Amino acid sequence: MHDASKTNPTTPRRLSEVEKWDFETDVAIIGFGGAGACAAIEAADAGAQVMLFELASEGGGSTAMSSGESYLGGNGGTPIQRACGFEDSTEDMFNYLMKSFGLIADEAKIRAYCEGSTDHYHWLVDKGVPYKGSFHERRAIIPMTDDSLLYSGNEKCWPFTEIAKPCPRGHAPTIEGDNGGPLLFKALANQVQKRGVQIHYDTRVLTLIADDNNHVHGIVIRMNQQEYTVKARKGVILCNGGFCMNEPMLKKFAPKLARGNYPVGNPGDTGTGILMGMGVGGCAINMSEGFISMPFYPPAETTFGIFVNAQGQRFVSEDNYHSRVAHGVLQQPEGRIYLVLHADEDFTPPPLLNADIAGTGETIDELEDELKLPNGMLKHTLEFYNQQAEQGNDPLFHKAAEWLEPIKAPYVALDCSPDRGVIIPYFTFGGLETQPSGEVLNHNGDVIPGLFAAGRTACGVPRSGEGYSSGTSVGDATFSGRMAGKAAANQKV
Amino acid sequence: MHDASKTNPTTPRRLSEVEKWDFETDVAIIGFGGAGACAAIEAADAGAQVMLFELASEGGGSTAMSSGESYLGGNGGTPIQRACGFEDSTEDMFNYLMKSFGLIADEAKIRAYCEGSTDHYHWLVDKGVPYKGSFHERRAIIPMTDDSLLYSGNEKCWPFTEIAKPCPRGHAPTIEGDNGGPLLFKALANQVQKRGVQIHYDTRVLTLIADDNNHVHGIVIRMNQQEYTVKARKGVILCNGGFCMNEPMLKKFAPKLARGNYPVGNPGDTGTGILMGMGVGGCAINMSEGFISMPFYPPAETTFGIFVNAQGQRFVSEDNYHSRVAHGVLQQPEGRIYLVLHADEDFTPPPLLNADIAGTGETIDELEDELKLPNGMLKHTLEFYNQQAEQGNDPLFHKAAEWLEPIKAPYVALDCSPDRGVIIPYFTFGGLETQPSGEVLNHNGDVIPGLFAAGRTACGVPRSGEGYSSGTSVGDATFSGRMAGKAAANQKV
Fold first, then answer.
1. Are B10 and A443 an interchain contact pair (Cβ–Cβ within 8 Å)?
2. What residues contact B427, with CB distance under 8 A and at least 6 apart?
3. End-to-end distance of chain B based on CA atoms, in angstroms?
4. At residue A2, does pLDDT exceed 90?
5. Contact call for B375 and A395, based on CB within 8 A
6. Which of A104, B152, B453, B461 is the most exposed place for a label (fewest CB within 10 A)?
7. Cα separation values, B435 from A390, B245, B386, Å
8. pTM for the full model?
9. pLDDT, tens digit (0-9, with 9 covering 90-100), for B216-241
10. For A369, left (φ over 0), alpha (ψ -120 to 50), or beta?
11. Are the Cβ atoms of B255 and A104 closer than 8 angstroms?
12. Is the pLDDT score of A278 beyond 70?
């Protein structure tokens, strides 16, 4: 008899210890967020019996808390891209994403994601997610209008412009305000219910059930203070998120994310799925990486400013996506970081950033003095910048011409130093290594029979803040959920 | 009967499958490098029967290939430090190492290492490692004289000078040339032999033997094309190195180290020990980090130069340890990196760096033109630097006064861009999470009974190139080997 008090995610229950199956299904899905919902829909559509297990009292996960934006394109363009006058090619999308994640990119996953991207758009629309063929031209993290399409990454930024034609690929469900996530999830949840999927809320999955070869056969759950076993004839799909809410796990695997101060996720993002996978030999990769950012826009106009380090030097192009700028900030040697802007009388700092005003000046000398920057450095930086911007050039960091204007007096400097109160959101990108199908791999690169993972429990398309674009996390979660749902349902038993 | 063809390090042989023990010992040590030798000595001295298993035909591992330098100090100073006129405090050493590794430091390990550091010196001397009380004042990676003591890290560099009194802690065995590693290892190997430790060379350890709770009971080895089982009554100690020679493992866990082009290690550094530990639930941490460097000195005089990026800006203090400078280089946005130096007629580039001359100039304008750097940027950088250096200041990066001199014409710029032929040595810092005692921890933070790890198989004191000091790897390998040897020998059975 198993000692239940010792149950933890990284110790699978051995099949030989299971005395009876309390529940049986074809596919057991852990976590009813974006990935889990899509996995359930696809598995059911492929004819499998599906059960969903959710820790919370309702579904949604981090997807429902997000803007619901999906990064989609390629294949000539989604209908939304085309309605807005954009053609998109799969190669441009592929090259852009490969360049974004560089040495840590997963080529096979990016390839599958790009090739399946417009199909994924149609699938989402078919499931009731509404998009509108209107382009949100103004730079934003989230469109607060009901526009659907926006540039949500570094597509228009150097050096990406050198290898891929820029195209907006952020697809937000059409709704006013920051309400895309709930809208997206509601549509998916309706589809799950329609298919008669049995959903167990308030249910903690304790651990996997595996045989001596670590093949997965089911899960151990706790509902109403009772432990039950669930047989999953075709497979278990781990869709229970990343680990940004698990402090010891962050400290162990992603200690540098401690520079963030605002975890982005739901309380269930405790890495349990990743730990369960590791417990049966699953290989977790990219564990140190995460999204880590600084919401210095909106308003879009801050892009006209310059970031400078404690040397009074620029170090990044300010038209980069916010997490790429934050990556630059976090790489600077010790010392303060400032965002220098023109400020008229009614200047207000960016509302999401929570940055203090570190200094102001009618002249740049005055500002430099106030910031105690090395004598003349900021002055040279600004003069050089302004001179070049006047001509529409940024020879240092290649900021796009649309954001190049001399910065005029009076000046204000916002304190964007990490640890000085500025908001630094973060979440994790490390997870189980999977095939594009969602099959979890062990350390030898072999598939672990019966185990699948999707969303942030897997290490998916998005792999670093440096290369992130909005929509690659929700887009990947829903897409990878679908792939895993199909693959699990198609297992021979 | 076990299917031997399927044996791989991450799949432990189950105890229930073991039909007989071909060998029995108290402590089985895998890998006869610096860590393994020290583990064997301590385990034998604590009264345990010890067997050593080495893949190669002789011992040595990466320790014997290294300079043999150990990072030692604190506790008032080693006799060598004191003979050279240096007092050292444990707190200074501790604060220095904690600051070096920052968010990824292991406080308990650094504490134990600093507190045990002079004791470790005496232990090494007692085992026959010779040191000489002479200080190598000239900046070097390795003293080519027979001097023992040198500054081997960032001790004299800002911001370390703000939190710890500088003190040289690199202890090289006294011998002319780069021969400290063989000398150190020979002394240790003699001690191992003296203790009658049975050493099996040309022996591959295939996997661990563990029971169903992943408690470790022994190992499976292959010698002379035959498979044998070895029972380790008190424990198995994994001392078989890091994974810098395992390309698929590097690609999976430390993809960014691919920017290196010169692996530092022995052919056995294939991560097998780490994989074996993971196979019984061991938690591997810090897997993405490694030493990655650029040997831009010797000669020490290159420290008078300045590194500039594609913006013509400095980004690091050139008096930093070489891997800290390389860390700065590798963080720069795309584009070339140059080391700008004064060059007279008989200028020769640093011999270890393999850098091309990218440009020369009788004036800085000429050099800037030749390098095609943004107009005036390099000129401003150099003029500012020279003006400040004249007064012994470096307000930007706080280079120490001893290296501050205006750089005079004519100039030369060495191309230090990664991927342009410059030598970039690397090795790995990721490994099994252990207690300071060497006990391997699982994902729950519990000790895995019967399993120990030391040297680069464990994640030890050194954790990043950014914070590395020469001698922390060999110092940690020998020290952690000793701790693991003692702890294993002291297990109750």
1. yes
2. B62, B242, B244, B263, B264, B265, B269, B290, B291, B456, B473
3. 28
4. no
5. yes
6. A104
7. 59, 26, 49
8. 0.96
9. 999 999 999 999 999 999 999 999 99
10. alpha
11. yes
12. yes
